[in-house]
Task: structure prediction
Amino acid sequence: HLPKFRKVYNGIYVAISIVFIMVFINAKTLELAYPISNLNGLLSLIIILTSLFVMRYRKISVDPYFSIGIFFLVIGLLGFVMNNLGMLPTNFYTMNSSKFGTGFEVIFLSLSMTNLLRRLREEKEISQELALKKSEEISELKTFFMSNMSHELRTPINAIMGIVETEMANKNSSKEERKKYQIVRNATVSLLSNVNDILDFEKMEKNALILKSEVFNPSIVINQISENWKSEAIKKGLKYRFEMDSEITSKSIGDADRLVQIINNVLSNAVKFTHKGSIIFKLKCVAQPDNISRFSFHISDTGIGMNEENKASVFDSFNQMRLNHKRQFGGIGLGLTIAKHLVDLFEGTIKIESQENKGTDVFFEIPLQNAKSVSLNDAIKTDQPLANPMHILVVEDNKINQMVMRKLLSSFENVTFSVVENGVEAMEALKTGVYDLILMDLQMPEMDGYEATERIRRGELGDIIGSIPIIAVTADAMQETRQRVLELGMNDYMTKPVKRDLLLEKIKNCSQNNGTLSVVA
Result:
């Protein structure tokens, strides 16, 4: 703080060194050393006091206990030096003044040190609070970014999937046309899988990835995903064989989408990393106590395989980027990481056996509860038209998504609909028209789906409209979004790209249950 004073102190240090040398030269220099050292001590005390006063004047922070301690030290040593120089009479106080000064100095410097430690602790606590606040802000920004990314990526995928599914369901489409649409669909599913992997990885980091519970037919969903990868394998010139246990249960309770995601990620790797040979997919189902069926999957390939080092880190995130494949196989390296996490959520097991240049075998087991009775989701047949006509309000700002929803809804019998672009237009439409159901997008200009739903549920348009069933149809697949819309009072939630059969199922749920829905995302 005081560079000029430092030079003075350095001069005092030099003087002390000279006096020290004088002690050993001869008797004359020894005699002179005593008064010089006392004068040097007196000057030192004056410089110390001056330093403190200058720092105070310049408003440089000095601990008060430190200042008091130095003050007592200076006073004690000053009395001792002045007594040695004959400037003060010799008595008990002057002879022991340095001891008194040093004693008080030790006490107050101890208090000063305690004060310093307290300040450091407070500063550390403040720093930790700031760091925690910054961390929370970054987490919120990350969630906001992931939510927007989900919305922006899923919106165009929704358009592609919607058109493809509508055309594939068109009875007038030829076999050749359906085959082309199937290729587009498979490519889109692959793209959607990568998007889901990125979003799921973010959920995994926050421990926010959870499984839903629904009744489904495992045979159907597993056959569908197997057929998708069978066509991809055949296109690569690979042999593909699927063997499924005939004793497989027809109705299970669990998260069908997540089960498919595990199988999809493993089969994706098998096809991706195999240049020649074959891929074999085997499934066995074993009945266990407590009405549980244990599904045992075995997927083997004759691909590039892995050495022991790579096998040890195969479930690590972005593992492929660390392998020496020169990115020739594509992908983002999250498939097996997410598969392992999902298997753990199912309380199952997964293991990998592999030999370099010989192939890989993936074994995983998933326990699923058997459905004792047919649930609402299973009872509703999507190939049957609605029993009662329904007029639906579609709230969607994106023109492409509007086109998709028009195509999907137009393919349903007994369904009429109107389309508006935001929450403001939705509120006006509800004032002038009668609707049985609202399909509500979330991210829209002027008034988003959250605010529109909140105002409807608050009864701004009356109690009857306030209870109208609302289904969120959004490209935002974040778990926080799902939780938020249900807390706002929406009856159901589905993500884009919209599946035709699932949309019809939810509409039928609405029709049969007067808006009381079993939520299946």
